[in-house]
């Protein structure tokens, strides 16, 4: 994470404040903002794990970053632009959001189609125009997709793999992932995380990944952000988290008879 002035910042959130509108389209009078005074800056190559309990506001933050909710343009800048107002950010593929409603549908030949329709994986994946064949082949391998799968007959995890593949076909600069890996088996998830890490390290992409499943993620993120009740509680590079966690193990080890207390590597946090 970097200072607000850093020109390399791919994501800049400055004092974000957000309240869901009521039925009249306006925030209910006197309502407390769901997200309040939230600031965060991520640079090229950063891989940020967004954690927090149910209802903490993770999806809301990702949707705002993905341009799905309107906020004042100065509060959220993605690639230096306002995600809500600059629709070219998403249409170009530079900003990619995978989560929420996306779980039910995929973009196919310019339309949103139900992911469970009677269609082959091949038709869906090869139906996306203007894709680098090498990238497509790599994703098919990473996600271990059988092109003959019929989407209405495959398992949830297999369907999700096709969907993730389609979402990642276009190279992105900023990727927002909202719990999209829950249906994947351990190996598929590990391969996907490896691919995503490579995109950051080699192409300078930035990823925010919201998840409750921390298994196998110890070495994936470069940063961790913990949110509770819409407020940023902690934003830290992983190196620092590991340092603190080691330190706390040493301190506890010297205090507690019988050895160090498990601190769960600094990952688990309760609201
Ligand atoms: N469209 C909406 N209108 C009004 N309130 C909403 C809307 N969407 C979410 N909320 C509320 O905002 C709060 C934060 O929801 P959000 O989905 O951002 O949390 P989350 O951290 O992603 O939770 P989870 O881990 O369960 O997915 C919740 O209290 C939720 O009820």
UniProtKB/TrEMBL annotation:
<dbReference type="GO" id="GO:0016887">
    <property type="term" value="F:ATP hydrolysis activity"/>
</dbReference>
<dbReference type="Pfam" id="PF00005">
    <property type="entry name" value="ABC_tran"/>
</dbReference>
<keyword id="KW-0547">Nucleotide-binding</keyword>
<dbReference type="InterPro" id="IPR003439">
    <property type="entry name" value="ABC_transporter-like_ATP-bd"/>
</dbReference>
<dbReference type="InterPro" id="IPR003593">
    <property type="entry name" value="AAA+_ATPase"/>
</dbReference>
<dbReference type="GO" id="GO:0005524">
    <property type="term" value="F:ATP binding"/>
</dbReference>
<feature type="domain" description="ABC transporter">
    <location>
        <begin position="11"/>
        <end position="254"/>
    </location>
</feature>
<protein>
    <recommendedName>
        <fullName>ABC transporter domain-containing protein</fullName>
    </recommendedName>
</protein>
<dbReference type="InterPro" id="IPR027417">
    <property type="entry name" value="P-loop_NTPase"/>
</dbReference>
<keyword id="KW-0067">ATP-binding</keyword>
């Amino acid at each position: 994470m970097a200072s607000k002035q850093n020109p390399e910042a791919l994501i800049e959130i400055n004092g974000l404040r957000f309240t869901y509108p009521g039925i009249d389209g306006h925030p209910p009078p006197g309502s407390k903002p769901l997200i309040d005074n939230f600031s965060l800056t991520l640079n090229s190559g950063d891989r940020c794990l967004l954690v927090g309990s149910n209802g903490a506001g993770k999806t809301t933050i990702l949707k705002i970053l993905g341009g799905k909710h309107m906020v004042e343009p100065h509060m959220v800048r993605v690639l230096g632009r306002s995600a809500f107002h600059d629709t070219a950010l998403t249409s170009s593929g530079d900003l990619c959001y995978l989560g929420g409603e996306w779980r039910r549908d995929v973009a196919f030949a310019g339309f949103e189609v139900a992911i469970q329709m009677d269609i082959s994986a091949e038709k869906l994946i090869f139906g996306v125009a203007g894709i680098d064949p090498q990238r497509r082949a790599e994703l098919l391998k990473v996600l271990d997709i059988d092109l003959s799968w019929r989407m209405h007959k495959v398992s949830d995890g297999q369907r999700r793999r096709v969907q993730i593949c389609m979402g990642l076909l276009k190279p992105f600069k900023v990727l927002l992932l909202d719990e999209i890996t829950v249906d994947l088996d351990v190996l598929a998830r590990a391969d996907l995380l490896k691919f995503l890490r490579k995109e950051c390290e080699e192409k300078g992409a930035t990823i925010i990944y919201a998840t409750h499943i921390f298994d196998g993620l110890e070495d994936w993120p470069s940063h961790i952000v913990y949110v509770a009740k819409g407020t940023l509680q902690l934003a830290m590079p992983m190196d620092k988290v590991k340092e603190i966690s080691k330190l706390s193990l040493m301190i506890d080890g010297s205090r507690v008879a019988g050895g160090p207390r498990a601190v769960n590597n600094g990952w688990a946090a309760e609201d």
